[in-house]
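Quick one:
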Amino acid sequence: MADRSFRGLALVLLLLRLFCGVPPCLLLHGNGRAVFRGSVGRLSGPAWAKLREEPCQVLDFRGQEQMWSLRLRDGRTVLAEGSKEQGFFVDHCVLPEALLFGNRATPKEVRVTETVLAGKALEARVDISRNREVFQELPFLVADRSDLARSRLAAFEDLQAHSEGERLQSAFEELTTGGLEGKCMEEAARLADSETSVEKIARVLARWQCNSQRMSVPPASGLYRLHSFLQHSCAPNCAVGVLFSTGEVLVRAIRDICKGELLTRNYEREAFLELPASERQQHLLQTRGFTCLCERCARESGEQKLEYGGKLTADSDKSAQLSSGCGTCRVQSIYGTGIGERESKRDYAQ
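Output:
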């Protein structure tokens, strides 16, 4: 039922975009930038002194003029350079096509399942052989991880750490990083002027913080529906890469996966796996708010392995606090080095 509602909302968003004359999503490349068609941003730089901070939507990149075609709020179309100093910066982009068509639905090899400790997860429905590509999908939401967009998120994170509901707020605070820019505080305060709005902001931010995947191009974070269900493991069975030309995430099996096994990946850089179990555990708890229960950690620490479907532990309390406050979001943060495709060669980050 929830999945049908999700797709219903995506269909409405897609129809609205088509009605407004925005073509289907596509990652556009030009002037050293890569931006999804339909992205929302603001004009910037001296060339737009009178229209500075004016909202705009990316329509296309015109190769002949080497300029970006942008639609303003009043319907006018203007051309701008690609640099943030002389053109525009991107705030966010919603890609409903990814939920309707781009993800090729849920692949027959996997299914979404519920676990006690990790929330939703991906489970293998069949045996999956090593080096097999399990699935690929487009992001359904992309946001710039720097500049004003990042500052707004940081401002929201700081505000809700000082509001009511301290159990949720303190748990969320420990999972976030980043400084604040003063120019964003006033806007954040207006949006967070009531306990209700703070709770809504906290839920949205928690979902983003927990489930975003960094992309190599553009320098942004994206949310992927299926990819966000991959669990962390210090002995992962999958590797993840990002397709340079389209922004699609690619998930490949790096060893044989048995039917019924959860699909896992390493949330950190590859060097993280060389650390001793105690350091890995401490790092994950401090930066991501959960204790790794993978088989490798249990073996190296000499403890009995606790399955993802088992009972909550004391070390999982921080994760439980955030999960109980966020409803459906899973307590994990997915970051990685975006690996792109150049000259038809696909590389993966483990």
